[in-house]
């Protein structure tokens, strides 16, 4: 027969095992909490661990809607190093918008002038003068043509307002990026309207404290490219603004001729 020797499982043995583990844990905690471990980056300070835990809990409590708003705000903010790229894209869009506005003004103005002159020529040839019916037809056609011309004038004024706003913003971008072409065009247009005697004051106003830009504008005013033989009255905006009034006078003249 085999005799089993009972294993000693008294409480004194367990106490010794626990007592042997406790010094190991105490030594590890002591090593982690030592100043040398903090300097070498082995442990994270207790305050930092607690702050990190509080931050994670605070982020977890944020509602989904607030998280979306935070993401949109982060996406909309442009880093400073990429700001010039955004300004260049905006500059190209503004330049394209200015060109499209001028194209719309020219196309719509030419269509209005062509239709009005064609109608006047047809009525002047086909209708006999001195008849009451002739005067009525010319009065009706002239009234409709004049109303359309005035409506186009209102639309043209709004398009020129949008163009001036785009040019103003384009000039701001050119000042920030150090560009010159749009500023030169604005300077020449305003100097022609104000007169050459105020070129220095206008250059100082447009430069906004930039000495290099001020000197460049003054040099442009003195150069042959800055001299214009046409007065400010013959600017494109002024001429297009006179078109509906000239067409209205033409209809009135045709009515008087056919009386």
Q: What number is the mean pLDDT? A: 75
Helix content: over 70%
Which structural class do the helices and strands define?
A: mainly alpha
Biggest sheet, open or closed, and with what strands and sense? Answer: none
Rg result: 41 Å
C-alpha geometry:
elongated
Q: Unreliable stretches, pLDDT < 50, 5 or more residues? A: 1-25, 37-44
Order of helices and strands: HHHHHHHHHH
The helix tally amounts to 10
| Measured distance between first and last alpha carbons | 150 Å
- Please state roughly what percent of the residues sit in beta strands, choosing from under 5%, 5-15%, 15-25%, 25-35%, 35-45% or over 45%: under 5%
- Per DSSP E runs of 2 or more residues, the count of β-strands stands at 0
Can you describe this structure?
- With 259 residues, the chain is mainly α.
- The protein has a domain at 84-110 and 129-257.
- Helices cover 78% and strands 0% of the residues.
- It is built from 10 helices and no strands.
Detail the topology: elements first, then pairings:
Layout (H helix, E strand, L loop, with lengths): L10 H22 L2 H6 L5 H15 L3 H13 L6 H44 L5 H46 L3 H14 L4 H9 L3 H12 L13 H22 L2
Helix pairs in contact: 5-6, 5-10, 6-7, 6-10, 7-8, 8-9
Concise synopsis of the structure shown:
The protein has helices at residues 11-32, 35-40, 46-60, 64-76, 83-126, 132-177, 181-194, 199-207, 211-222, 236-257. With 259 residues, it is an all-alpha fold. The N and C termini lie far apart (150 Å).
Which descriptors would you attach to this protein?
259 residues; elongated; 10 helices; mainly alpha; single chain; disordered N terminus; 78% helix
